[in-house]
Amino acid sequence: MTDDNAMVETVAAGQQELTPARGFRAPGTAVLLGGTVVGAVAAFLFQAFGNRTLGEAAFAPIAQLWTVFFILVTVALIPLEQYVTRETSRGRRVLREDIRVIAVTALGTAAVGGLIALSFLDDLFGGDPLFIAFLVLLPIGYATLTVGKGVLAGNRRFGHMGWLLFWEGVVRLAAAFVFISIATSVRSLAWAMVAAPFAALGTRFWRFDRQTAVVATTGATGFLGAYMAGSGASQVLLAGAPLAIALLGGAPELASTVFLTFTLFRGPLTLIYSLQGRILPFLVKIAEEGGGFGSITKRIVGGGLGLAVLGGGVGWLIGPEVVELLFDARPDRLVAALAATGVVCASTTQVTGQVLVALGGTGRLAASWISGLLAALVVLPLVGLVPDRSVAVAFISGEVVALAVAAWMSIRSS
Fold first, then answer.
1. What is the phi/psi pair of residue 380, to 5°?
2. Which is more confidently placed, 135 or 28?
3. Are 281 and 356 in contact (CB under 8 A)?
4. pLDDT one-digit tens code per residue, 80-91
5. Rounded CA gap, 347 and 340, in Å?
6. Cys staple from 311: which of 46, 183, 208, 344, with CB 3.0 to 4.6 Å?
Protein backbone atom coordinates (compact mmCIF):
# COMPACT_ATOMS: atom_id res chain seq x y z
CA MET A 1 0.00 0.00 0.00
CA THR A 2 1.48 3.38 -0.97
CA ASP A 3 1.47 6.56 1.04
CA ASP A 4 -1.11 8.06 -1.38
CA ASN A 5 -3.78 5.48 -0.58
CA ALA A 6 -2.72 4.61 2.96
CA MET A 7 -5.43 4.99 5.58
CA VAL A 8 -4.98 6.35 9.07
CA GLU A 9 -7.15 4.65 11.65
CA THR A 10 -8.78 7.09 14.07
CA VAL A 11 -11.27 6.51 16.83
CA ALA A 12 -14.17 8.91 17.37
CA ALA A 13 -17.21 8.41 19.60
CA GLY A 14 -16.28 4.79 20.17
CA GLN A 15 -16.36 3.99 16.46
CA GLN A 16 -13.49 3.59 13.99
CA GLU A 17 -13.39 5.81 10.95
CA LEU A 18 -10.76 6.02 8.25
CA THR A 19 -9.02 9.20 7.19
CA PRO A 20 -6.77 9.36 4.14
CA ALA A 21 -3.08 9.83 4.83
CA ARG A 22 -1.04 11.55 2.14
CA GLY A 23 2.71 11.09 2.53
CA PHE A 24 4.33 13.60 4.86
CA ARG A 25 1.00 15.44 5.11
CA ALA A 26 -0.43 12.56 7.14
CA PRO A 27 -2.00 13.77 10.41
CA GLY A 28 0.63 14.29 13.10
CA THR A 29 3.63 14.14 10.77
CA ALA A 30 4.60 17.76 11.41
CA VAL A 31 4.43 17.17 15.17
CA LEU A 32 6.57 14.04 14.75
CA LEU A 33 9.22 15.97 12.83
CA GLY A 34 9.14 18.81 15.35
CA GLY A 35 9.38 16.45 18.32
CA THR A 36 12.28 14.61 16.72
CA VAL A 37 14.23 17.83 16.18
CA VAL A 38 13.50 19.19 19.68
CA GLY A 39 14.47 15.88 21.25
CA ALA A 40 17.77 15.82 19.35
CA VAL A 41 18.58 19.42 20.29
CA ALA A 42 17.72 18.73 23.94
CA ALA A 43 20.10 15.76 23.91
CA PHE A 44 22.94 17.95 22.64
CA LEU A 45 22.16 20.61 25.25
CA PHE A 46 22.22 17.96 27.98
CA GLN A 47 25.67 16.81 26.90
CA ALA A 48 26.97 20.37 26.53
CA PHE A 49 25.60 21.35 29.95
CA GLY A 50 27.09 18.27 31.59
CA ASN A 51 30.50 18.70 29.99
CA ARG A 52 30.73 22.39 30.86
CA THR A 53 29.45 21.87 34.42
CA LEU A 54 31.59 18.90 35.41
CA GLY A 55 34.58 19.31 33.10
CA GLU A 56 35.84 16.82 30.54
CA ALA A 57 37.48 14.40 33.00
CA ALA A 58 34.50 14.22 35.38
CA PHE A 59 32.05 13.99 32.47
CA ALA A 60 33.85 10.96 30.98
CA PRO A 61 31.72 8.31 32.82
CA ILE A 62 28.56 9.94 31.40
CA ALA A 63 30.07 9.80 27.91
CA GLN A 64 30.77 6.10 28.39
CA LEU A 65 27.32 5.49 29.94
CA TRP A 66 25.64 7.21 26.99
CA THR A 67 27.73 5.20 24.53
CA VAL A 68 26.91 1.83 26.10
CA PHE A 69 23.23 2.67 26.55
CA PHE A 70 22.99 3.97 22.95
CA ILE A 71 24.46 0.71 21.63
CA LEU A 72 22.07 -1.37 23.76
CA VAL A 73 19.04 0.62 22.60
CA THR A 74 19.90 0.52 18.91
CA VAL A 75 20.99 -3.12 18.92
CA ALA A 76 18.14 -4.66 20.92
CA LEU A 77 15.34 -2.16 21.46
CA ILE A 78 14.99 -0.54 18.02
CA PRO A 79 14.40 -4.02 16.51
CA LEU A 80 11.83 -4.55 19.26
CA GLU A 81 10.18 -1.27 18.31
CA GLN A 82 10.05 -2.34 14.65
CA TYR A 83 8.54 -5.67 15.64
CA VAL A 84 5.86 -3.97 17.76
CA THR A 85 5.15 -1.48 14.96
CA ARG A 86 4.73 -4.22 12.38
CA GLU A 87 2.50 -6.41 14.56
CA THR A 88 0.37 -3.49 15.70
CA SER A 89 -0.15 -2.34 12.13
CA ARG A 90 -1.29 -5.86 11.24
CA GLY A 91 -4.03 -5.65 13.88
CA ARG A 92 -2.47 -7.52 16.80
CA ARG A 93 -2.82 -6.42 20.40
CA VAL A 94 0.88 -6.64 21.20
CA LEU A 95 0.75 -5.69 24.88
CA ARG A 96 -1.32 -8.79 25.46
CA GLU A 97 -0.24 -11.17 22.71
CA ASP A 98 3.50 -10.37 22.73
CA ILE A 99 4.14 -9.38 26.33
CA ARG A 100 6.53 -12.32 26.79
CA VAL A 101 8.65 -11.24 23.82
CA ILE A 102 8.70 -7.67 25.12
CA ALA A 103 9.59 -8.72 28.67
CA VAL A 104 12.35 -11.13 27.62
CA THR A 105 13.93 -8.55 25.32
CA ALA A 106 13.76 -5.77 27.92
CA LEU A 107 15.08 -7.85 30.81
CA GLY A 108 17.73 -9.49 28.65
CA THR A 109 18.98 -6.09 27.52
CA ALA A 110 19.02 -4.87 31.13
CA ALA A 111 21.02 -7.94 32.17
CA VAL A 112 23.57 -7.32 29.42
CA GLY A 113 23.84 -3.68 30.49
CA GLY A 114 24.48 -4.65 34.08
CA LEU A 115 27.09 -7.21 33.02
CA ILE A 116 28.92 -4.64 30.88
CA ALA A 117 28.97 -2.17 33.77
CA LEU A 118 30.26 -4.83 36.16
CA SER A 119 32.95 -6.00 33.74
CA PHE A 120 34.27 -2.52 32.88
CA LEU A 121 33.43 -0.68 36.09
CA ASP A 122 36.97 0.61 36.69
CA ASP A 123 37.89 1.23 33.04
CA LEU A 124 34.75 3.11 32.01
CA PHE A 125 32.89 4.30 35.09
CA GLY A 126 35.55 5.26 37.62
CA GLY A 127 34.76 2.28 39.83
CA ASP A 128 31.36 3.69 40.90
CA PRO A 129 29.10 0.65 41.56
CA LEU A 130 25.94 2.73 41.10
CA PHE A 131 26.62 2.66 37.33
CA ILE A 132 25.64 -1.02 37.39
CA ALA A 133 22.15 0.08 38.48
CA PHE A 134 22.11 2.84 35.88
CA LEU A 135 22.83 0.36 33.08
CA VAL A 136 20.05 -1.91 34.32
CA LEU A 137 17.46 0.83 34.70
CA LEU A 138 18.17 2.58 31.39
CA PRO A 139 17.25 -0.43 29.18
CA ILE A 140 14.07 -1.01 31.19
CA GLY A 141 13.06 2.62 30.76
CA TYR A 142 13.88 2.67 27.07
CA ALA A 143 12.09 -0.63 26.52
CA THR A 144 8.99 1.15 27.79
CA LEU A 145 9.65 4.09 25.45
CA THR A 146 10.36 2.00 22.34
CA VAL A 147 7.33 -0.23 22.86
CA GLY A 148 5.25 2.92 23.26
CA LYS A 149 6.64 4.31 20.02
CA GLY A 150 5.89 1.02 18.28
CA VAL A 151 2.28 0.95 19.44
CA LEU A 152 1.79 4.58 18.41
CA ALA A 153 3.48 4.10 15.03
CA GLY A 154 1.51 0.96 14.27
CA ASN A 155 -1.70 2.91 14.92
CA ARG A 156 -0.40 5.91 12.93
CA ARG A 157 -0.48 8.17 15.97
CA PHE A 158 2.38 10.29 14.67
CA GLY A 159 1.43 13.33 16.73
CA HIS A 160 1.65 11.32 19.94
CA MET A 161 5.04 9.99 18.83
CA GLY A 162 6.24 13.54 18.34
CA TRP A 163 5.18 14.55 21.84
CA LEU A 164 6.82 11.42 23.27
CA LEU A 165 10.16 12.36 21.68
CA PHE A 166 9.72 15.97 22.75
CA TRP A 167 9.12 15.13 26.40
CA GLU A 168 11.93 12.57 26.52
CA GLY A 169 14.47 15.26 25.60
CA VAL A 170 12.89 17.97 27.76
CA VAL A 171 12.60 15.75 30.86
CA ARG A 172 16.26 14.68 30.58
CA LEU A 173 17.47 18.27 30.25
CA ALA A 174 15.20 19.65 32.98
CA ALA A 175 16.10 16.82 35.36
CA ALA A 176 19.79 17.52 34.74
CA PHE A 177 19.37 21.18 35.79
CA VAL A 178 17.37 20.23 38.88
CA PHE A 179 19.60 17.35 40.01
CA ILE A 180 22.83 19.30 39.40
CA SER A 181 21.45 22.17 41.48
CA ILE A 182 21.01 19.69 44.33
CA ALA A 183 24.36 17.91 43.91
CA THR A 184 27.01 18.75 41.33
CA SER A 185 28.09 15.22 40.54
CA VAL A 186 28.23 12.72 37.72
CA ARG A 187 25.50 10.69 39.42
CA SER A 188 23.04 13.59 39.03
CA LEU A 189 23.40 13.49 35.24
CA ALA A 190 23.05 9.70 35.24
CA TRP A 191 19.79 9.91 37.20
CA ALA A 192 18.50 12.47 34.69
CA MET A 193 19.20 9.97 31.91
CA VAL A 194 17.30 7.28 33.79
CA ALA A 195 14.27 9.54 34.28
CA ALA A 196 13.94 10.60 30.62
CA PRO A 197 12.36 7.53 28.93
CA PHE A 198 9.55 7.29 31.46
CA ALA A 199 8.14 10.41 29.83
CA ALA A 200 6.56 7.88 27.45
CA LEU A 201 4.03 7.07 30.14
CA GLY A 202 2.57 10.54 29.67
CA THR A 203 1.27 9.57 26.21
CA ARG A 204 -0.73 6.66 27.72
CA PHE A 205 0.18 4.66 24.63
CA TRP A 206 -1.46 1.50 25.96
CA ARG A 207 -4.93 2.93 25.31
CA PHE A 208 -4.31 2.54 21.56
CA ASP A 209 -3.35 -1.13 21.85
CA ARG A 210 -6.32 -3.07 20.52
CA GLN A 211 -7.09 -6.12 18.42
CA THR A 212 -8.46 -5.10 15.01
CA ALA A 213 -7.80 -8.28 13.04
CA VAL A 214 -6.91 -11.95 13.47
CA VAL A 215 -3.48 -12.44 11.94
CA ALA A 216 -0.85 -15.15 11.86
CA THR A 217 1.88 -14.74 14.46
CA THR A 218 5.23 -13.55 13.18
CA GLY A 219 8.27 -15.55 14.25
CA ALA A 220 9.66 -13.13 16.80
CA THR A 221 13.00 -14.93 17.16
CA GLY A 222 13.83 -14.76 13.48
CA PHE A 223 12.54 -11.22 13.06
CA LEU A 224 14.41 -9.81 16.03
CA GLY A 225 17.50 -11.94 15.48
CA ALA A 226 18.14 -10.69 11.96
CA TYR A 227 17.72 -7.06 12.91
CA MET A 228 19.83 -7.39 16.04
CA ALA A 229 22.73 -8.91 14.14
CA GLY A 230 22.85 -6.05 11.66
CA SER A 231 22.08 -3.36 14.23
CA GLY A 232 24.69 -4.71 16.61
CA ALA A 233 27.53 -4.47 14.12
CA SER A 234 26.43 -1.07 12.81
CA GLN A 235 26.07 0.52 16.23
CA VAL A 236 29.34 -0.80 17.60
CA LEU A 237 30.97 0.74 14.55
CA LEU A 238 29.05 4.02 14.93
CA ALA A 239 29.12 4.48 18.69
CA GLY A 240 32.15 2.54 19.85
CA ALA A 241 34.78 5.27 19.34
CA PRO A 242 34.95 6.44 23.01
CA LEU A 243 35.23 2.83 24.16
CA ALA A 244 38.05 2.25 21.69
CA ILE A 245 39.82 5.38 22.97
CA ALA A 246 39.67 4.05 26.53
CA LEU A 247 40.89 0.59 25.52
CA LEU A 248 43.80 2.14 23.59
CA GLY A 249 44.88 3.94 26.74
CA GLY A 250 43.64 7.41 25.80
CA ALA A 251 42.98 9.95 28.54
CA PRO A 252 39.42 10.42 29.86
CA GLU A 253 39.42 13.98 28.47
CA LEU A 254 40.21 12.63 24.99
CA ALA A 255 37.44 10.02 25.26
CA SER A 256 34.95 12.76 26.21
CA THR A 257 36.02 14.95 23.28
CA VAL A 258 35.73 12.09 20.78
CA PHE A 259 32.35 11.11 22.23
CA LEU A 260 30.98 14.64 21.87
CA THR A 261 32.36 14.96 18.33
CA PHE A 262 30.81 11.71 17.10
CA THR A 263 27.55 12.42 18.92
CA LEU A 264 27.22 15.82 17.25
CA PHE A 265 27.98 14.54 13.76
CA ARG A 266 25.67 11.55 14.25
CA GLY A 267 22.63 13.86 14.48
CA PRO A 268 21.45 13.49 10.85
CA LEU A 269 21.67 9.70 11.11
CA THR A 270 19.43 9.76 14.18
CA LEU A 271 16.81 11.62 12.13
CA ILE A 272 17.06 8.96 9.43
CA TYR A 273 16.20 6.29 12.01
CA SER A 274 12.98 8.17 12.77
CA LEU A 275 12.03 8.78 9.14
CA GLN A 276 13.19 5.65 7.31
CA GLY A 277 9.81 4.02 7.87
CA ARG A 278 8.45 6.48 5.30
CA ILE A 279 10.87 5.15 2.69
CA LEU A 280 10.28 1.44 3.17
CA PRO A 281 6.63 1.17 1.98
CA PHE A 282 7.59 2.74 -1.38
CA LEU A 283 10.42 0.21 -1.81
CA VAL A 284 8.22 -2.70 -0.74
CA LYS A 285 5.71 -1.81 -3.46
CA ILE A 286 8.48 -1.82 -6.08
CA ALA A 287 9.62 -5.22 -4.83
CA GLU A 288 6.06 -6.62 -4.96
CA GLU A 289 5.68 -5.38 -8.52
CA GLY A 290 8.91 -7.08 -9.53
CA GLY A 291 10.79 -3.85 -10.19
CA GLY A 292 14.56 -3.54 -9.97
CA PHE A 293 16.58 -1.49 -7.55
CA GLY A 294 19.78 -1.11 -9.56
CA SER A 295 19.25 2.46 -10.69
CA ILE A 296 17.78 3.51 -7.33
CA THR A 297 20.75 2.07 -5.45
CA LYS A 298 23.25 3.76 -7.76
CA ARG A 299 21.56 7.13 -7.29
CA ILE A 300 21.49 6.71 -3.50
CA VAL A 301 25.14 5.68 -3.33
CA GLY A 302 26.28 8.32 -5.82
CA GLY A 303 24.51 11.08 -3.95
CA GLY A 304 25.76 9.75 -0.62
CA LEU A 305 29.39 9.69 -1.74
CA GLY A 306 29.10 13.26 -2.98
CA LEU A 307 27.66 14.34 0.37
CA ALA A 308 30.39 12.38 2.17
CA VAL A 309 33.09 14.37 0.39
CA LEU A 310 31.23 17.59 1.18
CA GLY A 311 30.76 16.55 4.81
CA GLY A 312 34.44 15.73 5.17
CA GLY A 313 35.38 19.16 3.83
CA VAL A 314 33.03 20.92 6.22
CA GLY A 315 34.32 18.77 9.08
CA TRP A 316 37.89 19.78 8.24
CA LEU A 317 37.14 23.50 7.85
CA ILE A 318 34.87 24.18 10.82
CA GLY A 319 34.31 20.87 12.66
CA PRO A 320 36.63 21.54 15.62
CA GLU A 321 35.32 25.09 16.01
CA VAL A 322 31.67 23.96 16.06
CA VAL A 323 32.37 21.25 18.64
CA GLU A 324 34.28 23.72 20.78
CA LEU A 325 31.50 26.31 20.52
CA LEU A 326 28.82 23.82 21.60
CA PHE A 327 30.68 21.61 24.06
CA ASP A 328 33.82 23.50 25.15
CA ALA A 329 35.94 20.63 23.78
CA ARG A 330 38.11 20.79 20.66
CA PRO A 331 38.77 17.63 18.60
CA ASP A 332 41.69 17.09 16.24
CA ARG A 333 40.91 18.51 12.78
CA LEU A 334 41.59 15.23 10.97
CA VAL A 335 39.42 13.36 13.45
CA ALA A 336 36.55 15.80 12.84
CA ALA A 337 36.87 15.43 9.05
CA LEU A 338 36.97 11.62 9.13
CA ALA A 339 34.09 11.45 11.61
CA ALA A 340 31.90 13.67 9.41
CA THR A 341 32.74 11.67 6.29
CA GLY A 342 32.12 8.36 8.01
CA VAL A 343 28.75 9.37 9.41
CA VAL A 344 27.53 10.42 5.95
CA CYS A 345 28.70 7.03 4.62
CA ALA A 346 26.79 5.35 7.47
CA SER A 347 23.66 7.34 6.61
CA THR A 348 23.98 6.27 2.97
CA THR A 349 24.36 2.65 4.01
CA GLN A 350 21.27 2.96 6.22
CA VAL A 351 19.16 4.24 3.31
CA THR A 352 20.64 1.69 0.90
CA GLY A 353 19.87 -1.02 3.44
CA GLN A 354 16.17 -0.26 3.12
CA VAL A 355 16.35 -1.86 -0.31
CA LEU A 356 17.58 -5.10 1.27
CA VAL A 357 14.89 -4.89 3.96
CA ALA A 358 12.22 -4.39 1.28
CA LEU A 359 13.50 -7.52 -0.45
CA GLY A 360 13.48 -9.45 2.84
CA GLY A 361 17.27 -9.62 2.78
CA THR A 362 17.98 -8.65 6.38
CA GLY A 363 20.69 -11.30 6.50
CA ARG A 364 22.47 -9.56 3.65
CA LEU A 365 22.11 -6.24 5.46
CA ALA A 366 23.63 -7.79 8.56
CA ALA A 367 26.51 -9.12 6.46
CA SER A 368 27.20 -5.59 5.20
CA TRP A 369 27.52 -4.10 8.67
CA ILE A 370 29.48 -7.07 10.01
CA SER A 371 31.94 -6.70 7.13
CA GLY A 372 32.39 -3.04 8.02
CA LEU A 373 32.94 -3.78 11.70
CA LEU A 374 35.50 -6.47 10.94
CA ALA A 375 37.34 -4.09 8.62
CA ALA A 376 37.49 -1.46 11.39
CA LEU A 377 38.76 -3.99 13.92
CA VAL A 378 41.50 -5.10 11.53
CA VAL A 379 42.58 -1.53 10.75
CA LEU A 380 42.52 -0.24 14.35
CA PRO A 381 45.67 -1.96 15.68
CA LEU A 382 47.55 -1.49 12.40
CA VAL A 383 47.31 2.29 12.09
CA GLY A 384 49.83 3.14 14.78
CA LEU A 385 48.71 6.75 15.29
CA VAL A 386 47.65 8.52 18.46
CA PRO A 387 44.43 6.99 19.89
CA ASP A 388 41.90 9.46 18.46
CA ARG A 389 43.35 9.40 14.94
CA SER A 390 43.66 5.61 14.98
CA VAL A 391 40.00 5.30 15.95
CA ALA A 392 38.93 7.81 13.26
CA VAL A 393 40.85 5.98 10.51
CA ALA A 394 39.40 2.64 11.60
CA PHE A 395 35.91 4.17 11.68
CA ILE A 396 36.00 5.58 8.15
CA SER A 397 37.50 2.32 6.85
CA GLY A 398 34.67 0.30 8.33
CA GLU A 399 31.95 2.63 7.06
CA VAL A 400 33.31 2.60 3.50
CA VAL A 401 33.44 -1.22 3.50
CA ALA A 402 29.89 -1.47 4.89
CA LEU A 403 28.58 0.89 2.21
CA ALA A 404 30.39 -0.94 -0.58
CA VAL A 405 29.04 -4.33 0.50
CA ALA A 406 25.47 -3.04 0.99
CA ALA A 407 25.51 -1.35 -2.42
CA TRP A 408 26.91 -4.43 -4.15
CA MET A 409 24.33 -6.71 -2.52
CA SER A 410 21.47 -4.33 -3.35
CA ILE A 411 22.44 -4.09 -7.01
CA ARG A 412 23.10 -7.82 -7.21
CA SER A 413 19.66 -8.55 -5.75
CA SER A 414 17.87 -6.39 -8.32
1. -50, -50
2. 135
3. no
4. 887 887 778 777
5. 11
6. 344
- What is residue 282's predicted lDDT score, i.e. its pLDDT? 64
State how far the Cα of 16 lies from the Cα of 19, in Å rounded to an integer.
Answer: 10
DSSP lists the bridge partners of residue 9 as 18
The confidence score (pLDDT) of residue 27 equals 67
End-to-end, the C-alpha distance of the chain in Å comes to: 21
Q: Is the pLDDT of residue 153 over 70?
A: yes
pLDDT band at 343 (very low <50, low <70, confident <90, very high): very high
Report the range of poorest mean pLDDT among 76-90, 191-205, 230-244, 377-391. 76-90
pLDDT in tens, 62-76: 988 988 888 888 889
| d(C-alpha 159, C-alpha 177), whole Å | 27
Cα(255)–Cα(242) distance, rounded to whole angstroms?
5
Q: How confident is the model at residue 380 (pLDDT cuts 50, 70, 90)?
A: very high
Residue 2 confidence (pLDDT) above 60: no
The pLDDT of residue 3 is above 60: no
Q: For residues 60 and 113, what is the distance between their CA atoms, to the nearest angstrom? A: 18
Average the pLDDT over 140-160 and give the result: 87
**Cβ–Cβ under 8 Å, residues 405 and 368:** yes
Three-state DSSP string of the chain = CCHHHCEEEEEECCEEEEEECCHHHCCCHHHHHHHHHHHHHHHHHHHHHHHHHHCHHHHHHHHHHHHHHHHHHHHHHHHHHHHHHHHHHCCCCHHHHCHHHHHHHHHHHHHHHHHHHHHCHHHHHCCCCHHHHHHHHHHHHHHHHHHHHHHHHHCCCHHHHHHHHHHHHHHHHHHHHHHHHHCCCHHHHHHHHHHHHHHHHHHCHHHHCCCCCCCCCCCHHHHHHHHHHHHHHHHHHHHCHHHHHHHCCCCHHHHHHHHHHHHHHCHHHHHHHHHHHHCHHHHHHHHHCCCCCHHHHHHHHHHHHHHHHHHHHHHHHHHHHHHHHHHCCCCCHHHHHHHHHHHHHHHHHHHHHHHHHHCCCHHHHHHHHHHHHHHHHHHHHHHCCCHHHHHHHHHHHHHHHHHHHHHHHHHHHC
Q: Provide the whole-model pTM.
A: 0.74
CB contact at 8 A, 93 and 209: yes
Please calculate the CA angle 413-276-163 and round it to the nearest 5 degrees. 165
Contact 372, 394 (CB under 8 A): no
